[in-house]
Design a protein that fits this description.
The structure is a homotetramer of 346-residue chains.
Chain A lengths: L1 E5 L4 H10 L6 E6 L8 H4 L11 E2 L3 H7 L2 E4 L6 H9 L4 E4 L9 H8 L6 H6 L1 E2 L2 H9 L3 E3 L3 H15 L9 E7 L13 H4 L4 E3 L6 H12 L7 E7 L5 E8 L7 H11 L6 E3 L17 E8 L4 E8 L3 H15 L16
Parallel strand pairs in A: 1-2, 1-4, 2-3, 4-5, 5-7, 6-7, 8-10, 12-13
Antiparallel strand pairs in A: 8-11, 9-10, 11-14, 13-14
């Protein structure tokens, strides 16, 4: 299979390239960007010197669609809506890593993203690419909207207790933390080393655009869930997300053992979700560079509250790795193809 | 005034020394440790070369009590209980930075600390040294139990909404994050650079010994508050604590403006608590090296939930700085004496 | 004494403000910047909330000169040359933290800085503000050109062996490393956290504009010294410079003991230079936040080569602290005034 | 082919495991350690949960030699000498990652390592496993002594100019910097996060045990080279080594173009050495997680001095990756087998 990557110079794009470089069935045919066209990629990212010989090409949709089997869009919010409609007219699979096609309701998109939404008809065509819960839909889709990094960690953590109706639906509090690569490649004061190093900050309290994405997914499973509380923090590290979730139990005499059983069963066929040993929790480095989502659990009898701790690499399971997992499924490959790495540790 | 520091080679002790070095009214008379006696401090901490000429002395309580006005105890849990009883027999003020005298109920101490508790009669003599809420008690006390780092950030953040009875008492969720200096000076795998750098982890979920301390303080203000949920995370940075707190509002039509008014009024006479501009939140670096506790607020109408974000330097307001603030109050000095620094930034 | 700070929003400027906030004899009267005029400083730097109430003022030289005793210029290269000529016509002391008046030869400036040089007559008026070696000149000057960060660490390390004619003049190799705050406040790819964290890089090999500054100073002491080799590296930390210097000994049977004696004697009257215990070397954190320059020494009999290791905080002894030390000397104060801090550790 | 790893719980061992997990021709058959026998590896390193199911076995040499084709020894200094003699009696290939068999002269070993040396006859059997310069010897060897991390970066950087006799042999100055994983897995004050974070230090000045290793290699190429000057620094990052080398040119009218030609030609058949574009230098992150050694060059006409900048990942090309490269060569495989990764960036 041949792939094109549009928006390759962002961190999601460069990570797609890293992972696809060793993928046995998907070759990167061409890489595209709206600027710097004609440059070799190694001029922008010298770490690929000798390893990636592609040059940056312009975004010529008919040409791309003619030459490849799948197009990965790793573009900022608001760009995919200008490219996807044309791609949908072509005979090519599409995996969009941006947020543009995740929210089914264009009004909600416009409220949270402050940008014009995609067309409703195109939104309807997009399949939410969370393979652990929508594998069949993905198999039958040609257009995937790849989940956001925070929602991936969060909804994988929440799914089993929601599906088993164990919780007080109005009690969900999500305290999420991310490495700074999540802010992307554009330098800013927030990502300026001198000010972000040795520092910990909170941002977009109650205002993060991933809030409606989380709500859409979990309300799809349990319509009685109202809004959630969700905060995001910046950790002085490059990669990694931890989502710490607090939920009141709605059942009598819940036990930690029960919780573990439910989670293990829920994910027994999901090779990238690892339920950790009871009493242990994964640190973000334990999934570094890989597509794993590690989940740990606690239950406090004193407060009748469940704590779920879910950890991913934001650039892999939170972006490029999950996109490749989706591509594997779309192409009928084993979903692990090209993704079975041992985390880089230390 | 003359001071002795017992346990000076821990991070709390060395920070006491840094701050007292420029204190106009309190001189460090002697420094003590249970090991390394006879060495100059600069042999253990070369950064004090030429600046601190004291040598490490053994812990001879009668001699110490005879020579100084105040003794700071910056010792690990379980050590103060072997020293304080003797000190209480002497005519000297005592400020204990350890956790040994914070919990009034010895059974609770033994349950959470897994160590023998102090004597009940000595526990009764200890005043909880949180100056913003117990200033009068501190003025009249000769024995201060200095608050824990997490409880300081947390209860300063919770106090106004508890005292104004704005909240659902059973809904308090506290997600706390700390720099790694909070783990102290002893090397361990958890604090090993190669494994903690570029990493974010959670620890002691529902089991941190600061949980009963927080509960004791806030239940003292509102006996109807049941247990709280409290998690602690390690951030790859040296100093700083952020406590992010989620609490359901119990009142109709709460507004963010109201919240800010209540917080500003609550702390109008507290020089070290800074209520931040509406809509902004302090990052930990914004209090680096200083005794400030910065508080930011959010209220989400969608969920009727309040978010309080409280930030301190764990070694200053969370330990040595607060101890000096307490000493100032005990000696009748302005509580800011020797503590009015601008945070080190960047 | 009253001071104005021009360029206060850069890291040198904000550090001047931090240190002057506790200076007993110099008050910050006004702060100035070419942009953001009218804003309160706390809007740009929220860490000064409640502590600095100044607003940013425009740069009106006659007004400033009329109101203050000393003007600190903490502006980027090329800006001071537009301000200093006017200031020289006024009755006010001037301390310029930029590189504009350090090089006496305007051609050399233009070659290395790629900018128009200052007027030769104004260059002649500037005193190079390295107090350890030019104290008398500073006392008699009203216009100080504050040394660069790398040159400060480097020439303090080289001075004793040059003045004692111990070295092969053509053999000086300087390998310097700096924290990322040295790159200033403007975000760029080089200072972008995701790419600079957990990374170590070299830059401006043989091309750093501090090379001619170092050469000018040491050639002033020994005209037979030719060019030096000087490389600069970026360390993933906020503050700190280490300059590791390698110099061939030119004398027979040099001993390490001799070297230490020479250094101790050279700096016996320099309160901010600390010659470390034989066999030990200071890490950058051991001077964090302070005006100290720590020097360690090695001599390798196998190669007959001396290694000098000199460490400073680039924003203090390498910028704001040294500027205040110069101001103290100009005003006839003890040079330590307002600068005797214990390093922040850990 | 089957492999055993002795000393798997060190960072070199765990990195061997990470890389061999995806090696198409070498399977990890068993893993061994002197302690923690019987535990699953995931209990010590939870990041391998579900990925590595091996348990830690004791070190039974005959059994190991009977079952595998190659033994990797990733043990601390002084341990290999107790294992290798027995292994040499067995029919198995040996790759020793420790320093025990690198120095051919046992007296030199004992002087620098302060430990008893290996037997001279066994030292004679060991092949120094630097594939770029000893490929043929490695092909014909069954016992490889894998180079040290600093020597790998350093001698790859020095080789071309030494072999082309371009330099003043007595002028070699090497200023090396390493991430903290180079200090290994044992916690210590030096590697304690609170003290090593945001800090830069120098250690073992003129005393590092890699000095004689570097000298042995380069003197093997040019016997007229005397001792070298070599310093090592700790960078607050996990992985990566940069060796910055300063060497006087011995030829008239050397040009940078010439230098680049020589380096490119020298390494044209070395897939893991990347000579960077003229005027650019690799940062350590540009080889993160991979077996590449990136080299950049400068020549300063002013001083007639060459600067060589060589960068590796200390745990890959400086340890486990190079060991696998050696194994590939010993087994007649393409040396890149299992090692062609794109660096993890950012």
């Amino acid at each position: 299979m041949k792939a094109a990557i549009i928006g390759v110079t962002g961190y999601g794009g460069i990570e797609l390239l890293r992972l696809l470089a060793n993928h046995p069935s998907i070759d990167v045919h061409s890489i595209h960007t709206s600027s710097q066209t004609g440059m070799r990629l190694s001029e922008v990212y010298p770490h690929v010197t000798n390893l990636v010989n592609h040059s940056l090409e312009e975004i010529d949709i008919p040409k791309i669609a003619n030459e490849v089997d799948v197009v990965f869009l790793s573009t900022p919010s608001g760009v995919s809506t200008t490219i996807v409609p044309e791609l949908l007219n072509e005979n090519v699979k599409i995996i969009d890593l941006s947020g543009d096609y995740r929210l089914k309701n264009p009004n909600v998109y416009e409220q949270w993203y402050k940008k014009p939404a995609a067309l409703q008809e195109d939104l309807n065509k997009a399949t939410y690419g969370l393979p652990e819960w929508y594998k069949e839909e993905i198999q039958n889709s040609r257009f995937i909207s790849n989940p956001g990094c925070y929602p991936t960690a969060t909804v994988l953590g929440l799914a089993p207790i929601i599906k088993h109706e164990l919780i007080d639906e109005s009690s969900i509090v999500i305290d999420a933390k991310s490495g700074i690569s999540g802010a992307g490649k554009s330098p800013s004061r927030t990502t300026h080393f001198a000010e972000s190093n040795d520092n910990f900050s909170i941002y977009k309290v109650n205002q993060h655009q991933h809030i409606p994405e989380i709500e859409q997914v979990i309300q799809g499973w349990d319509a009685s869930i109202p809004y959630v509380t969700f905060s995001t923090h910046l950790v002085p590290m490059t990669r990694g997300i931890m989502s710490t979730m607090y939920i009141n139990s709605a059942v009598d005499s819940l036990s930690l053992e029960q919780l573990y059983e439910i989670y293990k069963e829920s994910y027994q066929d999901s090779p990238f979700v690892r339920i950790r040993e009871k009493g242990t929790f994964s640190a973000t480095k334990e999934v570094y560079g890989t597509n794993y989502c590690d989940i740990g659990l606690a239950f406090d009898k004193r407060t009748n509250r469940i704590t779920v701790v879910s950890v991913i690499d934001n650039l892999v399971k939170g972006a490029a790795g999950q996109a490749i997992q989706n591509a594997n499924i779309m192409f009928g490959l084993d979903e692990k193809t090209g993704l079975h790495y041992v985390p880089l540790f230390p």
